[in-house]
Write a structure and sequence with these properties.
Blueprint: H1 2-20, E1 39-41, E2 48-51, E3 58-61, E4 64-66, E5 69-79, E6 86-87, E7 92-97, E8 103-108, E9 114-121, E10 124-131, E11 135-136, E12 138-143, E13 151-157
Parallel strand pairs: 5-13
Antiparallel strand pairs: 1-4, 2-3, 5-6, 5-9, 7-8, 7-10, 10-12, 11-13
Length: 160
């Protein structure tokens, strides 16, 4: 009887120790996005000042900016309406910041009218614009993730 009890205790201890060294659980929270991988202090930042509510003293805290990450922005450009739409092949597209209207990157569509911008971008508002003598088209997009949805850009005849 004592032997069985010792075996049981030994078995129980071995079982408990195997549970402690089992697979790790990688839980993440919304606050994990605030880590150093995604945000950083701007090198030219001198900090922002705020007055303390109760002390009346000046408080200083660093200005934090979202780091640029490589975002794969892809889509298709088509010409026509309804069932008659066709992909526009080998067309030049530019990616601009919406607010500043500055050109950031450019690319060319393939034979299926597909394009890809695989560039470092921060979250924000952008415009994908067709650059052509024959067609015109633009699409505003908002980037707020590393994998934004595909874009469908509709082109029309350029008006002279």
């Amino acid at each position: 009887m004592i032997f069985n009890r010792k075996c049981f205790v030994l078995y129980f201890l071995v079982l408990l120790s195997s549970c402690a060294y089992g697979p790790k659980d990688n839980r993440s929270t919304i606050l994990d996005s605030l880590n150093g991988e995604n945000y950083g202090v701007s090198p030219d930042s001198k900090g922002a000042m705020a007055e303390g509510m109760t002390t009346g003293k000046q408080l200083s805290f660093p200005v934090v900016k979202r780091k640029e990450r490589f975002v794969q922005l892809m889509g298709t450009i088509e010409y026509g309406a309804g069932l008659t739409h066709v992909p526009l092949r080998y067309q030049r597209l530019i990616l601009k910041e919406k607010e500043k209207n500055t050109i950031l990157f450019q690319t060319t569509t393939n034979e299926k009218g597909q394009f890809v911008f695989n560039e470092p971008l921060t979250n924000g508002e952008y415009v994908v614009e067709l650059v052509s003598n024959k067609y015109q088209g633009a699409k505003s997009i908002r980037i707020n993730s590393l994998n934004p949805p595909a874009i469908l850009l509709k082109a029309v005849d350029k008006k002279n």
